[in-house]
Design goal:
TIM Barrel; SH3 type barrels; 714 residues; 4 domains; alpha+beta; seven-stranded mixed β-sheet
Amino acid sequence: MNKIIFLILLSVNLAASIHEVEYFENIKTADFGMPVKKEIMLKERVAKGMLFNYYGYLPYWIDTLLYVNFDYELLTHVSYFSVELNTDGSIGAVPNPANFTKIYTECHNKGVRVHMTFTLFGTTSVSTLLNSITARNAALSNIIDFVDAYSIEGVNIDFEYVTSSVKDSFSLFIQTLAESLHLDINGRKELYIAMPAVPAWYPGYDYASLSTDADGLFIMGYDYHYSGSTEAGPVAPTFNSVFWGYYAVNTSVGDYFDYGASRNKVILGVPYYGYDWPCDSDTLKSSTTGSGSAVIFKYAKPNAVTYGYEFDANSQTPHYDYYSTEWHQCWYDDSVSIMDKLEIVVDSSLQGAGCWALGYDDGEDDIWNVIRSSFQRVPADKHYVVRIVTPNLNVREGPSTAYKILNVALSGDKFIAFDYDGYWYKIYYPAASFPYYAYLYGGDGITVQYMDGDNSLPMVKVTASLLNVRSGPSTSYSVLTQIAEGQCFAVESLSGDWAKIMLPDSNSRGWISYALYTAYYADVSLLNECDFAIDSTIYPDTVTMGDTFTIDLFLNNTGFVSADTLLSLKSISSSFFFDVNEWYDSSTVKTTGYNGLPNQKMLRSAKFKAGDVSKDTLITESFFLEREGDTSSVTFEISIFIKYFDGGKEEKDVNLNQIEKNYYKYMIFDLLGRKVFEKTGKFRTSDVFLKSGIYFLVSSSNNKISKTKIFLLR
């Protein structure tokens, strides 16, 4: 009996997936060709704060007019569906290539990674390719060539399905492809694989091996009931039940772990569609009288309103029934059921979720909203830690000295700001102490410095409606105050499930139960946009080779990350000015100075060292600012005249007041390599107006250059 059941399940679930069915349903209306080659740099994401990936398949038949409805802030990957692989390893043309070019442009301009899906349908075709070394190698080569030719970030392999006879060959194919993509000459590329919903039904996949080699395993968490099912039922049951049986999304995720898949590689695919079956009746588990037709979310949502929305408590998915010559049942997923699935992603610490397919919601924002609420921490965006750097600073009700003083903050206090009005910074104030917000004056960062930034502290955002702040890390301690949902505070330390936060209303610290009632951010700066405008740069126009000198940059913080020691200057390539003592590598130098807040101005400095030249040379290089992979929107050039110096000649230490010679031209440099004096003609010490110290005199006469260390005494 068990064998019979297994064979039935296996035969049923090797039926064509929604991917395959819809691919061939739309093929007759597609144009085939190769896209226009564009090389558009992948820009920084439109908005940060996504805690999980969201991976969307985009079928070739989706009208480009719908692309404007995609919420690119929430998408991390778009995989165009699809290019067919042939059994000899050759690849077909791209269906509707203009659509691919359009989405490539849209995504790259908004920081969304683009993949191409390569499909091979039918177990016979899959086995033919995988059993041939020649065909496999050809496929590998053609896929890599396509990735490089069209400057995309990766590929998705959708083979439906892999049988046990070619299990090892498929694993080897994926391993080789992953290695080639990861070591691509144009930079690391990604590899994702479309995977079956239920591992037990598909023994041809080595789940542990594929998880090791690929960047992501996209579980096609749908078609549990499919077009050819003999009974109507949930397409993607969120939870297993006695009524519907063991197999459901939650058990599939758990089974993937049991089969060796890593949590951080799993993407849970959710359906933006359902099936409408003709049935015997409107009762649950009614027998079907024909094949089901796919109904996308765009149509399922209004149909449910028309015919009567019902929500199945067993599977936690919606459906509706109607009578038209015979009974019909349509089972689908909506924002309610998809939110439950996204909670499984969060609770299971998966890499993320994804969908079949983009465009099926056609401008409806229901699903986008649940993705945002589950995966994105928007309140952390534009939040940053401010630190008091003056002995006392008034905390006021509003952004001017005309407002009432609520408290006085002390040097070293740190709070969370999220907005500014000029140089007044808006911070959260405990809800039980009224008001909900308060303001601190930070100064412009140059002439007045009352506050700076501190990116090292974690932050918590309250998720409970009201949260007690206690005097110690347990409920046995007294309540100091209360904070409200959405408020954010800097974390000074942790003790188990408790966090010690800083309070602006009492110059004190308090403890909250953060593990249960807050969202915790270890580094808020990674979620924010980092950008700086360069007002001016100051550096010497002439230095001698081998000398070190300082470049001063006057910056305006135009982003939402404070400056810190991670803010560096980066050259386009290896720099002539590399200094092993000050630079992170041959193209990156750290900056020091004031840790300016968003909207503040600041001075940051970097140490350079002039390289060797064989003769006097003008060196020009381009630089930009960078912090943790975020780059500034502008580059700037420095041009410095490097004087040649023959280091083999003996250097004399003399007193400047003892020198009285005729030189054609001479220059004086300080110890930082800055040129502080220059003159042509007779050298007179009375011409030099410098403070006492050590300097270098570089002189030229009759095509001879000499360098002398001098001591100036006053």
